[in-house]
Write a structure and sequence with these properties.
Elements (H helix, E strand, L loop, with lengths): L34 H6 L10 E6 L6 E3 L12 E3 L10 E5 L5 E7 L3 E5 L15 E7 L16 E6 L1 E10 H5 L8 H23 L20 H4 L4 E2 L14 H14 L6 E4 L1 H8 L21 E4 L2 E7 L8 E4 L4 E5 L6 E4 L6 E14 L6 E3 L6
Parallel strand pairs: 10-18, 11-13
Antiparallel strand pairs: 1-8, 2-7, 3-6, 4-5, 4-7, 5-6, 9-17, 11-14, 12-13, 14-18, 15-17, 16-17
Length: about 375
């Protein structure tokens, strides 16, 4: 028999008699994850000044470059080099990848005098631009000590940057009952913190200090130098400086970059930070060699760990990395430091009206030690 009672559809167009049914959840779709910050981790110390400094040192160089091609490339014993002070009498030297060994017998203001074909090796051509490798020095038995040689430690620095978001909630907003949350101020605090962490990762990657008044003033904002602006030694662009040509990322380019970083430093690149496009390219490196068992219901198409000849690298997907870039990092040489007592926190502000007001605030800097231990590939295809 037909239903004759009152139903929900008979309550009227605006449903005035029926209580609202709203899920007790506020959904946020905006990206706020910070995978690079998570991968680097918490610092071991705090910054103690708005101008944070650290020391770096190097070993004495054991290579130099031939300045001028000798008149007789296989017989001349005076070789002009860029830095004669790097050589000592008694050094065994190899030019480039040749099998000939040289023995340094005298060091001048712009040249070194050598014995060619030392130890019975066969003399080979020497040309401008060749690298002279100093194998080691042989001291005479019973000789006096040589003059001391040493490198000077360098002081590197960065500035702290203040990150802040203001929270303001009216008295009426505080008094009413809300759907999906218990306290409006707490919700706004959490939301502001997510925004600030997102901004911190963005700044750590690409921020830069002003050219003048870096300490800041009433008109100049103090900003830190991020990772990308500081990378100078290992900055690779396809087709330039002997780097493989072609703007598409492939294993040849990635391994060339890792090799060149390894040659420049004792660093151990363990993080590869990329945007979504380059992450998909890396994940396709081994696509043609993947195999699956007949009963395997999963199809895996991603690379999270890349094992190269120059170490094991974790591939970090960060939407804040520029799309045309692959950032190669030694995480043991990176710290993201808060100024002492200034990590992200909420600070209530004075009440001057019918509202509650405060700031979520933090002050941070980046310590990027030995920039030659890191690298970046730029100018890659993004479509």
């Amino acid at each position: 028999m037909p239903f004759t009672g009152k139903a929900t559809y008979s309550a009227g167009a605006s449903l005035p008699e029926i209580a609202e049914d709203v899920s007790d959840l506020v959904g946020i779709v905006s990206p706020f994850e910070t995978p690079l910050l998570d991968a680097i981790g918490d610092p071991q110390v705090e910054a103690r000044s708005t101008h944070h400094e650290w020391l770096e040192d190097t070993l004495l160089p054991n290579t130099d470059t031939v300045t001028t091609t000798p008149t007789n490339p296989q017989t001349d014993t005076e070789i002009e080099v860029d830095h004669p002070d790097r050589f000592r009498v008694g050094d065994q030297v190899r030019c480039g990848d040749s099998e000939e060994l040289l023995l340094v017998t005298a060091v001048g203001s712009s040249t070194v005098t050598v014995t060619r074909g030392y130890g019975g090796t066969t003399a080979e051509d020497i040309a401008a631009g060749d690298t002279m490798h100093i194998l080691g020095n042989a001291s005479l038995e019973g000789q006096d000590a040589d003059a001391a040689r040493f490198t000077v430690r360098t002081r590197r620095s960065n500035w702290t940057q203040i990150f802040s978001k203001t929270v303001l909630v009216s008295g009426s907003e505080l008094a009413v009952r809300h759907l999906g949350l218990a306290d409006e101020v707490d919700f706004q605090k959490a939301k502001a913190l997510r925004e600030l962490l997102r901004d911190l990762e963005n700044t750590i990657l690409g921020g830069i200090s002003p050219e003048a008044d870096r300490i800041g003033s009433e008109t100049v904002r103090r900003t830190m130098n991020g990772i990308l602006p500081q990378l100078a030694t290992n900055r690779f662009v396809p087709g330039t400086g002997g780097f493989p040509s072609g703007n598409d990322l492939d294993e040849a380019k990635l391994n060339t970059a890792l090799r060149l970083i390894w040659e420049q430093s004792s660093g151990q690149v363990d993080l590869i930070a990329v945007n979504g496009y380059q992450k998909r390219v890396i994940s396709q490196f081994g696509a043609g060699s993947r195999a699956y068992a007949p009963d395997d219901p999963r199809f895996t198409s991603q690379v999270a760990i890349y094992e190269s000849d120059f170490g094991v690298q974790r591939v970090v997907l960060s939407r804040w990395v520029p799309r045309d870039a692959v950032v190669l990092l030694d995480s043991s040489r990176i710290q993201i430091l808060p100024l002492a007592g200034r990590s992200f926190h909420y600070r209530p502000l004075a009440v001057t009206g019918d509202f509650e007001k405060g700031q979520v605030l933090g002050e941070y800097t980046l310590e990027l030690r030995n920039e030659a231990a890191h690298g970046v590939i730029r100018g890659l295809d993004t479509a």
